[in-house]
Amino acid sequence: MATTATITLTSADIAGDPVNVSKTATCTKAGATTDLDQTTGLNRVHLRSTTNKVLLAANAEGDNLAAKVYVINKATDPTLYLTITINAQTVGKLYAGDWMFIPWSQTDTSASIEVAATNWTASTGDIPVEYALFHEDTDFLTNA
Amino acid sequence: MATTTATVSISSDITDSTINVSNTAALHTAGTTTGLNTMTSVTKVLASTDQVDLITTGSVSTTHAYVYINNPSTDHTEYFNITIGNAGGGSATDVEEIGRLYGGDWMWFPWDVDDDICVTPSVSTDMTIEFQVFS
């Protein structure tokens, strides 16, 4: 029951020598070698809210347990972005085609992962967002 | 401008039908199709459990960047607590915890360069952390 995540970073010209970084992580329970055993599966939603919406609701039960979050902005217009926020702290902006993969602590119920289609307008069209959560806690509920 | 790509591949057999995800992002400046042109690559060894500013806003000259952080430890019990916020002010309460990066784990995320990225090692026995910032 393994979950693996691989990142590959490449650039032939951002530095004097080519950049090639590749790393595979096997997603395990916190502090253990036991595989994560629960997931929301891959989800897809269309976002048209310029204010924050809860993408993944934090569960205090998940504090100190392992959880990995994958989010991608599937828009094709390069100007459209999602603002990613945890507990009112902005992390960054996912522009069209950008993805993120992070551990998620769920320190308390305020630590939900929220997204906003900050520069969405009626003329831009919805922003398709795909996401998945891989986790270990026993009673996780998502509002997806 | 440089051409830099970040590819993710996720495979999971937790569910009855295997989940396979693969996507490649070309790294652009905010809202454009212009490639990024700056990269910082650092390896540090941290020898205390004090919180440290790993990546400061002053180290990047733009408002949109991408961050890769890797915990190369082979010990699955050792982790870095990754936080974002104004730890430079000296108060740990100013920061929001993102998550714990255990041995063998990596993370990749966009960074709006508004607040520092801080880490707290779980042990004081020389934990190595690697990161790259593209901007």
- Give the distance, in angstroms, between the N- and C-terminal Cα atoms of chain A: 24 Å
Largest sheet of chain A: 5 strands, antiparallel
Annotation field: number of helices of chain B: 0
Q: Name the helix and strand elements of chain B from N-terminus to C-terminus, one letter apiece.
A: EEEEEEEEEE
Task: Find the biggest chain interface.
Answer: A-B, 65 and 61 residues
* Estimated radius of gyration of chain A: 16 Å
How would you describe this structure to a colleague?
- The complex is a heterodimer of chains A (144) and B (135).
- Chain A has 144 residues and is an all-beta fold.
- Chain A has a single domain (30-135), classed as Jelly Rolls, CATH 2.60.120.
- Chain A is built from no helices and 11 strands.
- In chain A, strands 3, 4, 6, 9 and 11 form a 5-stranded antiparallel beta sheet that branches. In chain A, strands 5-10-7-8 form a 4-stranded antiparallel beta sheet, with no helix packed on it. A two-stranded antiparallel ribbon of chain A has the order 1-2.
- The mean pLDDT of chain A is 92.
- Chain B has 135 residues and is mainly beta.
- Chain B has 2 domains: 1-37, no CATH class; 38-134, Jelly Rolls (Sandwich).
- Chain B is built from no helices and 10 strands.
- In chain B, 42% of the residues are buried.
- Classes of the chains: A mainly beta (144), B mainly beta (135).
- The interface between A and B is large, with 65 and 61 residues.
Give the helices and strands, then pairings:
The complex is a heterodimer of chains A (144) and B (135).
Chain A: E1 3-11, E2 19-26, E3 38-39, E4 43-47, E5 53-56, E6 67-73, E7 81-86, E8 89-95, E9 99-103, E10 113-116, E11 127-135
Chain B: E1 4-12, E2 19-26, E3 39-46, E4 52-55, E5 65-70, E6 79-85, E7 95-102, E8 106-111, E9 116-121, E10 127-134
Antiparallel strand pairs in B: 1-2, 3-10, 4-9, 5-8, 5-10, 6-7, 6-9
